[in-house]
Amino acid sequence: MNPRKPLAFWIPLIIAVLIILVTFFAFGENLISPDKDNTDSNINISNDARKTIVFSFGGIDFNVNLKTQISLFMQKYPHIEVKILQLPGSTDYQRNSYVSAFKSGDESVDVIMTDIIWTAEFASNGWVLPLDDYFTQEMRKEFIKGAIDGCTYEEKIYAIPKRSDVPLLYYRKDIIPKAPETIEEMVEMVKKYKASSGVKYGYVFQGHLYEGLVCNALEFIWAYGGDVIRNGEIVINSPESLKGLQTMVDIVNEGISSPDVLNFVEDDSMLAFQDGNALFMRNWPYAYKQLNVEGSAIKGNVGICPIPKGEGATQRSTGTLGGWNYMINKNSKHPDEAWLLIEWLTSYDMQVLDSKTGGNPPTRTKVYSDYENQNDPFFGQMLSLMENVRLRPVSPDYPTLTELMQINFSNALYKKIDAQTALKNIEDGMLKIMEKKINGN
Ligand code: GLC
Q1: What residues does ligand 1 touch, defined as CB less than 6 Å away?
Q2: Domains in the chain and their CATH numbers?
Q3: This model's pTM is above 0.70
């Protein structure tokens, strides 16, 4: 037999090699190259067996760019396939889904994206893995301290911070001459400019019966020096908290806001503001990018400032610290691969991508300082805005507490009960939770 191959054999082979080389050089540089990132993992995994992990997250504002991050991950780790389980946007809905899955020992999900308020509950129930062996003290130093605190429960770390949400007051720069520092100043500005500018709403926020309402109501309560728990004592039923809640009730019912906002979650407020229907809006940072997209009625006219404080209050303005993290299901069959995914999603490069394309605030301090050095008009000032945020009560009982607050704040805003009764109900409910704990049931 002639050992030399005929030309008909070599030509297709040469063409195939050429196609591979051309594709690589043409497209390789346009992607964030997985081999050039800063995420050399601290664990080694053998490449022999292909593993599939399931990653679950909710919401629509960041999906597109999360999916890009996942396909880049799969390029870097071809032996790991990531399947996506996507849930609706509401934090309450997502929590309920995970809680019922974990209660029945679910093994099907490996990585979940979690709200900062779930950490204590998920950790204390043993539903998620402690990550201290993966996420070293050294690694933690690269993240914002508040975000790390929000991932920690009883000195163990259970999550890696994805994004840190600090609420902002958005205002129409083309109508409002200067950012208000107090709630009263904002109210005066609405009275002065609403009719002349023809907008429908003065101030929009998140007033629907859900977690977002608690964030908004607490900001009013904190604005006048009130609080829920202070030094271990229940202090919700105080004159300061009453002043805060009453001010919010009046704002809704006396034409500064509107009872319409009692149906609003984040995206509803954003759409109202984006369509040019509101002078002021309280929302999270993700809105800034959306408000300035091509075609937005108010592009270029969006001012931002900290959440205003109450007149006469001695403390500075205070926003609720929000944020989302990544956790690993305790029953995951592939915790090492799950960790690699989390490490990738929270890497410097992915946080830059997430903030640039999704408008989400990062959790790595270096991403912020780089934005600051580039004089970025939004993220450049974000770290200083983050100095004045507060946590919602941190407790495994938070789900019961938030339910209590949601229903009572909502009833007060609808004027079904007065603000004083709402606070008294919350106080009584909290005392009952404590009593139950003391009696061990
Ligand atoms: C944002 C925050 C989250 C909060 C939620 C309320 O997503 O990051 O912490 O619970 O809003 O709607």
Answers
A1: 91, 115-117, 165, 211-212, 215, 284, 322-324
A2: 7-165+323-390 (3.40.190.10), 168-320+397-438 (3.40.190.10)
A3: yes
